[in-house]
Amino acid sequence: MVHIWNYLTSIKMCSLRGGSGRIQAKFIARERLIITGSQHGEVRVFRYAKMVPMKATEIIRFLAHSHHVRAIVVHPTESWILTAGYDRTIKLWDWSKRWSGKQVFTGKHNLIFPILPILLLCESDLLGDTGNVMALALHPTDPLIFASAAADDMIRVWRIGEVDSLYTLRGHQDVVGLWKCDGSGL
């Protein structure tokens, strides 16, 4: 269950059935959408109305990953979200094209395959990292660059539309679960 709160008034605005287990959730305010990802790999999309009490209606759900959706990132200007899962994949989805899968990122084979928008599936056995992908972050000044942090103790830097990852940052002693880029290169 996902609960939406007004933090200024401490009032619960609404509750959504976003899946089961640990749930990731993101707002896309410009589209009035709430995106959830569940431990079963499912993404659910809700459209909400700005009213009190807030109303949200599920408009679509689809299987994004074969295991837990661990991270969701909303692109700041394009109609895209990135999802990452315990199935070791990172996927780019386009809501302007009925949530079709645009791209799967892989570090294992150093290839990126465009995915055809058939039945809202973006399926592949390609790996985004060699460990479960734990976190994603967009670059603050270049919205085509993002990074993934994974259970293989590495951070990979990617560019949307490129064939290979740009960099692999090695040297962590354990799972990298959080990642933040400030744009300064540090």
| CATH architectural type | 7 Propeller
Total helical elements: 0
Question: Strands across the major sheet, in which order?
Answer: 7-8-9-10-11
Task: Give the averaged pLDDT, no decimals.
Answer: 77
* Poorly predicted parts: 108-129
In sequence order, what are the helices and strands, one letter per element? EEEEEEEEEEEEEEE
Describe the largest sheet.
Answer: 5 strands, antiparallel
Which overall shape is indicated by the principal axes computed on the Cα atoms? globular
Global structural class:
mainly beta
By DSSP, the count of extended strands is: 15
Q: How many structural domains are formed by the residues?
A: 1
Return the CATH topology: Methylamine Dehydrogenase, Chain H
Helical proportion, percent range: under 10%
What is the straight-line distance between the termini?
A: 37 Å
What is the CATH level 1 assignment? Mainly Beta
Textual characterization of the structure:
A hairpin with a 5-residue loop joins β5 and β6 (55-63). The chain is an all-beta fold and 186 residues long. It has one domain: Methylamine Dehydrogenase, Chain H (7 Propeller). The strands form four sheets. The chain has a five-stranded antiparallel beta sheet, with no helix packed on it. Helix content is 0%, strand content 45%.
